[in-house]
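Schema walk-through. Below, the input block comes first and the output block second. Nothing else is stored per chain. Lengths vary across the set, and this one has 495 residues.
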Amino acid sequence: MRRPALGFVLALAAFACATNPVTGRSELVLMSPAQESAEGKQAAAQVKQQMGLVEDDPALLAFVRSVGARVAAHSPRKDVSYQFAIANMPETNAFALPGGYVYVSRGLLALVRSEDELANVLAHEVGHVAARHAAQRETRAIGVGLLTMLGAAAAGVVGGAEAANAVGQLGQVAGAGLIASYSRDQERQADEVGQTLAKAAGYDPGGMATFLGALDTEVTLQAGGKTRRPSFLDSHPATPERVATATARARTLGTTGVLAPISARSTFVSRLEGILVDEDPAQGLVREQTFVHPDLDLRIQFPDGWAVQNGQDAVAAQDKEGAALIALVVQERGDDPRAAAEKFLRANAQAVELGDHGPLKSAAVPAYQARARVALSQGTAAAELFWLAHGGAIYRLQCLTGEQNLSTFDAAFERTAKSFRSLSSEERAGIRERRVHVVQAAGGESLAALAERSGNVWKLEKAALANGLEKGATLAPGQRVKIVVERPYARGSRE
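--- output ---
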């Protein structure tokens, strides 16, 4: 039996060997270009659905795509069509999916200081695609975040910590690669390919080193606060060695490009006018235990001490011990919560064993509730289900816990459901958004003075970093400086 088995393995290896477009060497990969294309297309749909894309600034999007296309034209891999987009992420990040889908976040665009830096970032991600790093990792990852958290929490409720870990690990294998993690060698290779592509496209390859240095500084600034947001550095670890290597490579490649950048620095900075910074009110905002959504005109209060996470399709909260979970989703259009409840229960009759049910009294909106036992992959859980009618839609509040814990969480579940209501005028007025604003300096004006007169809400250190300046810098007459201003949120607003 061993000979046929060995023959099969060798045949598979021969089938899976391919020439790497970057190295020119033959390597074993278990993902064909067709599979890469299919995985990338599916993952791109997940990014758009779960994360969202910035598409309300056609000029900025066209600019990013033009810079990306300029570096991608020099990619050694020609069997993919590179596509560039802006991810609706406040974090400073960039990532690539199999098949040539490349993303930069709006948070990264707010930080980047020059077209050269942006070009090197995009070229770095093109390098990952060109070198087939996703295929090397044998990844089929397409999504991460709320769904993985919900699955792990539900497993924890029913099956304990081991079940939760198993579900979490499954999520990492089956759906955690929107922002993939590469090995250090792959990062080094992507840096090298990226700088080479940037130089070939007419950009300064030193932009890679200055950008990585800026990210390193940003992490240091964030470390001074209570929390540090995930960033480009989490999936693209920037070490002093890596920055030094990029600096040395830039000197070797030379800084004189074949072509001039698409825009001078002043023009480049002006292109960033109006970029949203921090959270996007249009996706809803989490304020400690409260979730508000101005466009949907709703507010809901989760139990004290619970961890609240906002996703593209749901907002959820989990208690400290992982013993209970609450998730709010939109079920359908309509205004009859009882009819919506009956429809849901009929559709899920095999998985849901219905208990007591009826109207929810003293709720701020028309509401219906039901107790049930829910069949999960790891066993069963107790559920409190609420249907809430608001604004022409039916929201479903799903509350899960172990059957033995229902009495512990029952009151918290009901309080959460009854907290669901419209925003008050004061609450709506208090919702703000932050956007990049470009200001011209007066002759001899300091960065601190400009920040003060322009209403800047960035910390001075962050403003200096985002402009490639020192805190005590004196500005030239007419110099364009990025600052961030805060204003009341208005649906679809943009200067």
